Amino acid sequence: MEMRRVPRAAVAVSVLAAALAGCGARPATAPTKAQVTVAVRMVVHSCTGASPRQVPLRAAVVLDGRGRRLRVTTGNGGGARVPLTPGRYAVAPLRPALRHAVVSARFDGRTGPASRGRPVVDVTGGRHRILFLVALRPLECNGLGTVG
Q: Could you tell me the pTM of the whole model?
């Protein structure tokens, strides 16, 4: 009777060991989704002595990478959210006038490298933020309002 229990126990232990080995043998996978907030703000210079302010701007932004080109239009609040696959993207405003007026492009609070004049961002899984600061022509400050 004792001899029958030994083979059964050996089989049970080997099955359990194979199952546990399979759990730890899986390779780590990279996140497959990212949520990116794109924002465009216009820098408005005031008269001397006052600091410039940032005003939300509705604009179209192009994200180019991973074999696809994605157009994102920011809302009246100057921002838009878009789901992306992690990877490397070149980002720029769609309109050439805005593209030439970009004074700062930030990805998660830091300036990044550029390719052909367009900022390049490395999107990983999770939440990210892209911010464009655009400076259009400065307004005159002559104290007479808009007359001139």
A: 0.66
